[in-house]
Amino acid sequence: MAKASRIGHLLLRFLAFSATLSAVIVMVSSHENATFFTISFEAKYTKSPSFKYFVIANSVVTVYGFFILFLPAESLLWRLVVATDMGLTMLLISSISAALAIAQVAKKGNNYAAWLPICSSVPKFCNHMTGSLIASFAGVVIYMILLLHSIHRVLDPLLMRKP
Amino acid sequence: MAKASRIGHLLLRFLAFSATLSAVIVMVSSHENATFFTISFEAKYTKSPSFKYFVIANSVVTVYGFFILFLPAESLLWRLVVATDMGLTMLLISSISAALAIAQVAKKGNNYAAWLPICSSVPKFCNHMTGSLIASFAGVVIYMILLLHSIHRVLDPLLMRKP
User: N or C: which end of chain B has fewer CB within 10 A?
Assistant: First the structure.
C-alpha cells in the first residue's frame, strides 16, 4: 500500500473505532428514573435484550477496531482482515437494526399491540439512545467504505483497469 | 469456474432464492383476528414498520436471487456480484434483526416498558412470524457461505495456496 493511502486507511479505521466507542459510552451512561402512570421505573439499556445486544456488538467491534490500528503494514493477517471486517460489519448492522426497531416502538408505540410510547416519560434516555444509534451508524458507514474499497482493489468490479 | 463447482454454486443460489421467497409468502399470508382485553384487532405484518421492512427486504433479495440464476457463466457482471451479494446480505441481516427484535417483544413482552406479550392472543400469527424468520435466516446463511467462498477464492486469507 502507498504511504498516503495507508494513512487515509488508518484514519478511517480510527474514526470507525471512535464512533463505535462513543456509541457504547453513550448507551451505557444512559439511565433515567420516571413515573409511568402509577408505576415508577428506571429506563436503562439492560432492560431490553436488543439494547444489550447493541452494547455487546459495539464493544466487540470497538476492541477489534483498537487492535487493528496496531497491525503492522506488512503483516499477512491483512488478508484475513477483509473477512473479519465483513463479519463484524454484519454484526454491527444487525445490532443497530434490532436497537432501532425497539427505539421506534419506544418513540411511537404500536397502537395495534397496545404498546404505549415511553419516550415522553423518559426523554433523556431516548436522547441518549438516539445519539448512540447515530454514532454506531457512522461507524457502520465507515466500515462499509473500507469494505467496498477492499473489494474494488481486489476484484475491480467496475472494470476500470484495462485487462 | 469448473462445471461441478458451477452447479453447486447455482444450487446454493436456488436454495437461497427459495428460502427468501418462502419467508415473504409465509409472512404475507399471516393474519389473525383476536380480542385483546376488550379491543378486537387484526394481527398483520403491515401493522409494524419492522415487519414491513422485513417483507420488502426479502422481496428485493428474492427478485435479485431469481435474476442471478439466469446470468451467463462468462458474463463480466459476475465481478460485480460479490459487491451486490454483500450489500443484499447486509440488507437481509438488518431486516431479520429488526423483525426478530419486535418478535421478541411480541413473545415475551417488556415488563419495564409495560409492553404486554401478544403471542398468547394471536398464536397463529406468531407461528407464521417464527417460520418466516427461520426461512429468511436460512437464506442469509447460504448467502454468507457464497460470500465467504468468493472471498476465499480471490483473497486466499488462510494462505492455503503456496505463493
Answer: C
DSSP line for B113-134:
TTBPP-TTT-HHHHHHHHHHHH
What span, in angstroms and rounded, lies between the C-alpha atoms of B20 and A136? 28
Query: Chain-centre distance of CA B101, in angstroms?
Result: 14
| pTM listed for this prediction | 0.87
> CA B82, CA A41: separation in Å to the nearest integer?
48
To which H or E segment does residue B62 belong?
helix B49-68
Judge contact between A89 and A55, C-beta under 8 A.
no
Chain B residues whose CB is inside 8 A of the A50 CB are 101, 104
Residue A34's DSSP bridge partners are: A41
pLDDT in tens, chain B (163 residues): 567 788 888 999 999 999 999 999 999 988 777 766 666 777 788 888 999 999 999 999 999 999 999 888 777 777 788 888 989 999 999 999 999 999 999 888 887 777 888 888 888 888 999 999 999 999 999 999 998 888 777 766 555 554 4
Cβ <8 Å between B155 and A154:
yes
Return the half-sphere exposure (C-beta side, CA atoms, 13 A cut-off) of residue B80.
Answer: 9
Whether B104 sits inside 8 A of A148 (CB atoms) is: no
Choose from A155, A160, A161 for mutation: most chain B CBs within 10 A: A155
Give the amino acid at A107: K
ipTM: 0.85
Q: Distance between CA atoms of A118 and B105, rounded to whole angstroms?
A: 15
